[in-house]
Amino acid sequence: MVFDFVIIGAGSAGCALANRLSADQRYTVALIEAGGKDTNPWIHIPVGYFKTMGNPNTDWCYHTESDPGLNGRSIPWPRGRVLGGSSSINGLLYVRGQSHDFNHWRQLGNVGWAWDDVLPYFKRAETWKGDGDIGPSRGTNGPLSVSPTRLKRAIVDKWIEAALEAGYKQNPDYNATDQEGVGYFQLTLDKGRRCSSAAAYLKPARERKNLTIITHAQVEKLLIKDSQATGVTVNIRGESQDILARREVVLSAGTIGSPQILMLSGIGAADELKQQGIVLVHNLPGVGKNLQDHLQARPVFKTDLSTINIETNNLFKQGLIALQYALTQTGPMTMAASLGTGFLKTDPSLDSPDIQFHIQPFSASAPADGPHKFSAFTASVLQMRPESTGHIALKSSDWRDYPAINPNYLATKLDQDTIVKGIQIARKISQFEPLKTHITEEFSPGLGIAIDDYDATLQWARETSVTIYHPTGTCKMGQDDMAVVDARLRVRGINGLRVADCSIMPTITSGNTNAPAIMIGEKLSDMILEDAK
Question: Which of 137, 172, 211, 516 falls between 20 and 30 A from 64, CA-CA?
Fold first, then answer.
């Protein structure tokens, strides 16, 4: 099979890219996905992330290596393995990030990636379905449906009011010019159903004769001749097959998959590839390095208000909720992974917020365990711009073997200080009315750890914190020796090969990463079509 463009990975960026490139009928496009079609009904029901995360039919089910920053724990790292990628199993939370994030990328030498450059692509991607006037920063005619949270909960309202009493401000649109403040999340939701990248971009493009979508096709290696990418070898249901590209190959396999495929193909640090017996094609030492993620600490508070924990604690209640959704596409089954949010500063002297809250009207020791038996809410908090970086490394030269994921969490003093301050702020907000009256007990960390006990709080964070599913940075864009792609996302030293996913981020964005991933796909589509002409 021969196509003009071959895209590897049908995730958030890959689906956007496939749609925009195939809209030009002059070109043929192949979209290759290791997982299957997005036919599982739980993908499209918003609360279905409880069913799709940890399911090997929809999730790669990665685990990290033992991490020193987490007291030697290995933790799950869900990543979507299905059409739509992680946008088909994520929490539906839509966060662009701060203008500072992208202006910093530009300051690092990445021309065309400042906030004013990327905002048009955020707008092009979305149809904003909020109430009232639509501001100049919102899109009105894009494929991605973005909605304000319609499902409200009293405990989340109380948290927001308490945060205001604690001195923080309310923000009706954190995706506009100013991120700082508290409020409700914006969601990739459309008429009670998940609006994944596949639903937004692939569904309307599937009938195009110049677009071929190939599922259950896992990449073995890239085909490279004389420093030119010519295609890819994929394994389709047990059989190897070459898919050739006349013009370009684009890696959209994600922060784990894209560097893994590059290294399996002989592109990476020469000494590391030699150790795995891989023939060096191009020495690119930054491949797999610069791994960044958001680590969440999860304080839990028992409450006398109703939460999902007790609203779903028997089959009769679950049946009523299912019936409500079946009849009206409303109710708890439309709930995103979090309802309330806050983008706050741990120090008033900071230029912009450095922590983010995810306020969830439920609690669990681990997602697989199900909700606690008591009514409670979670005030998850994370550091938005961690200094600590880790790496992805091959364990073997076999494409079937998962790579080693080394996040290197909490490796710097700033990261340690910030997570402790974030936990302290979560606990202090809980002491303000009207929230305080409705908290019956601080379940975790618990009163055994004083709010101002730095060492014990940090120790609790190391023992309990988990990923909030935002890995980035392993094929970073830049001009330094560790950069993997340039500002047009071309792999350095290899012609006809680009990367389009969160791995290209030189630094992680301030918040959830699905919206920036889609923006990256949108922006690269223009670059590719410009260069093709």
Answer: 516
Q: Give the span between the Cα atoms of 449 and 527, in whole angstroms.
A: 53
Q: Are residues 318 and 442 in the same domain?
A: yes
Name which of 135, 136, 100 is nearest 115 in CA terms.
Answer: 100
Q: Residue 323 sits in a domain of what CATH number?
A: 3.30.410.40
Instruction: Say whether 470 is catalytic.
Output: yes
Q: What is the pLDDT of residue 295?
A: 98
**The model scores a pTM over 0.85:** yes
The CATH code of the domain that includes 207 is 3.50.50.60
Please, are residues 104 and 96 in contact by the beta-carbon 8 Å criterion? Answer: no
Which residues 6+ apart lie within 8 Å of 152 measured at CB? 184, 339
Q: Which residue has the tokens 């958001």?
A: 294
* Residues 260 and 281 occupy one common structural domain: yes
Q: Which domain holds residue 423?
A: 150-184+295-383+410-464
Strand blocks (E) in 237-390: 239-251, 267-268, 282-283, 295-297, 300-303, 340-344, 355-360, 376-383
Q: How far apart are CA 258 and CA 140, in angstroms?
A: 32
Helices of type H across 366-439: 413-429
Q: ω into residue 445 within 30 of 0, thus cis?
A: yes
**Are 159 and 140 in a shared domain?**
no
Q: How many domains does the chain have?
A: 2
Give the CA distances from residue 242 to residues 88, 220, 231, in Å, rounded to whole numbers and listed in that order.
28, 10, 7
Of 44, 104, 282, 470, catalytic: 470
The predicted-structure confidence for 219-243, as pLDDT tens digits, reads as follows 999 999 999 999 999 999 899 999 9
pLDDT, tens digit, 9 for 90 and up, residues 467-502 = 999 999 999 999 999 999 999 999 999 999 999 999
Q: Are residues 356 and 287 in the same domain?
A: no
- Do 179 and 138 lie in one domain? The reply is no
CA 126, 129, 131, 132 dihedral sign is: positive
Residue 237 backbone zone (phi > 0: left; psi -120 to 50: alpha; other: beta) = left
